[in-house]
């Protein structure tokens, strides 16, 4: 095994590997499955381990409903489902941003990205000065905490948080030891002449693997194999699938010939390829005796981009770019055989801002050592919650979202208020109406006033104004998304039909 276990130390927890499962026995906010979960009864209680490896696997624009453990009827994902069966499936996991770049900024900093003005997608606007085209230099990211603690660090895939030609905005200037991937653009069959895939600072001159999802996995395995056996590693595997353009390998497309809608068919093929590559990576971890000591987190950067990539967010309403549940609630699996239970479904709300403090705890890094007044983390350590140690207590009573000029939202308990420039505030009870079909605003004006005040009070804590604003085109696009109909059921046929609200 790569790491020697010390059974008497608590502070250093093993590598996390994320898994999803169906559930049968409930304790607090956690539901445990009979079988594999019961065989591994609380293995972490009397043990602690050398610093775990950490693997974050991020999908791009993936639908909430498009994995088997969330009930997909069209797209089998046996490898993702296996992670769920071995770990903790979180059914109310949120991102802090409804589009790619702001969400990733929140993930990596552990702070509401609105605190440093990063509310919109990174823009290649020639009129914006270069310093404002990246997450500010003094915002620390996950690898900048883990590398001083002895971790080898790498990002493979999509960056989308700065310019490629400015060293401090490059991943190698933000705490990563190794970088392979693209800054933001897509296209899943890359061409060397496009010079948009970098290894370090240099464009690759030869396409070694024709499809990026496969290539990123190869690079991930190579990084893991290069890391010395006595060195823990942190790998941020940031896939750009199933983001558009919809491009898949012909063999994968052929598997889904029964799906008549062409966009949905190609999307399903891309999802299948992602699942296959997750299986390939997990197999390598098992073959090299690293799986049990690796903390794996699998999730998506935002809700499915329904109209663009034919993803499905059922039973959630909405899509990427807006603040209905379909834009901000995502699949999330935590797997760590040596540090978390298996066969568990966790049902309380959490947010991706929690990842950084959770990883700090797993690595034995005291939170008080990394926080100071101007850089307070907004997330919490999820480990005791995922282990069922806090019963029904929620990691967060209140969570917030804002996209400047496009909308804001607050969830307090099960009540959620959405404020947009396009209509009056809306109020939903997510405990009984996860699809956000019954607007309670007119029935509960006092609650609307209370949550509007909470949202306003939170906004007054934000020191920064937005450094980048999207064009009027995207403002119009946002309104269309709020007014569009969405599917809230899994398809029973091979086509996805859009229901009317």
Task: Describe it.
With 501 residues, the protein is α/β, with parallel strands linked by helices. The chain has a single domain, classed as Alkaline Phosphatase, subunit A. 24% of the residues lie in helices and 17% in strands. The chain has 13 helices and 18 strands. The chain has helices at 36-39, 78-86, 100-109, 142-146, 212-226, 250-254, 262-287, 306-309, 325-328, 355-362, 383-386, 445-459, 472-483; strands spanning 18-19, 25-27, 30-32, 53-59, 88-94, 152-158, 178-182, 198-199, 202-203, 233-238, 294-300, 329-335, 344-346, 350-351, 398-403, 407-412, 415-419, 426-429. Strands 1, 2, 3, 4, 5, 6, 7, 8, 9, 10, 11, 12, 13 and 14 form a 14-stranded mixed sheet that branches. A four-stranded antiparallel sheet has the order 15-16-17-18, covered by helices on one side. Helix 5 (212-226) packs parallel to helix 7 (262-287). It is globular, with a radius of gyration of 21 Å. The termini are far apart. Residues 1-49 and 494-501 have low confidence and may be disordered.
């Amino acid at each position: 095994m790569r790491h020697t276990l010390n059974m008497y130390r608590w502070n250093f927890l093993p590598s996390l590997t994320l898994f999803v499962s169906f559930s049968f026995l409930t304790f607090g906010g956690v539901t445990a499955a009979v079988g594999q979960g019961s065989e591994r009864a609380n293995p972490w209680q009397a043990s602690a381990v050398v610093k775990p490896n950490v693997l974050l696997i991020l999908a791009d624009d993936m639908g909430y409903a498009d994995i088997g453990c969330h009930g997909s009827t069209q797209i089998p994902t046996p490898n993702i489902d296996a992670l769920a069966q071995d770990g903790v499936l979180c059914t109310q996991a949120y991102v802090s941003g409804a589009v790619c770049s702001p969400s990733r900024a929140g993930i990596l900093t552990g702070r509401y990205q609105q605190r440093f003005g990063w509310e919109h997608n990174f823009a290649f606007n020639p009129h914006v000065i270069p310093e404002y085209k990246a997450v500010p230099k003094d915002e620390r990211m996950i690898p900048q905490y883990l590398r001083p603690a002895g971790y080898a660090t790498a990002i493979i895939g999509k960056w989308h948080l700065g310019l490629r030609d400015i060293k401090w905005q490059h991943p190698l200037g933000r705490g990563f030891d190794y970088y392979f991937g693209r800054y933001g653009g897509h296209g899943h069959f890359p061409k060397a002449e496009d010079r948009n895939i970098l290894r370090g600072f240099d464009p690759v001159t030869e396409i070694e693997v024709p499809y990026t999802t496969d290539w990123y996995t190869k690079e991930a395995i190579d990084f893991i194999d290069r890391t010395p056996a006595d060195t823990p590693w942190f790998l941020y595997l940031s896939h750009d699938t199933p983001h558009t353009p919809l491009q898949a390998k012909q063999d994968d497309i052929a598997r889904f010939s029964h799906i008549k809608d062409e966009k949905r068919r190609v999307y399903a093929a891309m999802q299948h390829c992602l699942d296959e590559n997750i299986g390939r990576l997990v197999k390598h971890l098992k073959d090299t005796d690293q799986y049990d000591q690796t903390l794996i987190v699998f999730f998506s950067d935002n809700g499915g981009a329904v109209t663009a990539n034919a993803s499905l967010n059922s039973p959630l309403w909405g899509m990427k770019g807006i603040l209905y549940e379909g834009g901000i609630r995502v699949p999330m699996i935590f797997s760590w055989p040596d540090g978390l239970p298996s066969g568990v479904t966790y049902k309380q709300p959490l947010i991706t801002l929690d990842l950084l403090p959770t990883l700090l705890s797993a690595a034995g890094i005291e939170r008080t050592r990394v926080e100071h007044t101007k850089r307070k983390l907004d997330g919490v350590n999820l480990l005791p919650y995922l282990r069922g140690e806090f019963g029904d207590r929620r990691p967060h009573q209140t969570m917030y979202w804002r996209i400047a000029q496009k909308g804001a939202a607050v969830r307090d308990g099960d009540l959620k208020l959405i404020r947009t420039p396009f209509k009056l505030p809306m109020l939903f009870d997510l405990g009984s109406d996860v699809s956000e079909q019954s607007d309670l605003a007119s029935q509960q004006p006092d609650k609307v006033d209370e949550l509007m005040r909470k949202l306003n009070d939170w906004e007054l804590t934000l020191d920064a104004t937005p450094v980048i604003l999207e064009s009027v085109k995207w403002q119009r696009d946002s309104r269309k998304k709020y007014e569009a109909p969405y599917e809230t059921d899994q398809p029973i046929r091979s086509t996805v039909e859009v229901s009317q609200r």
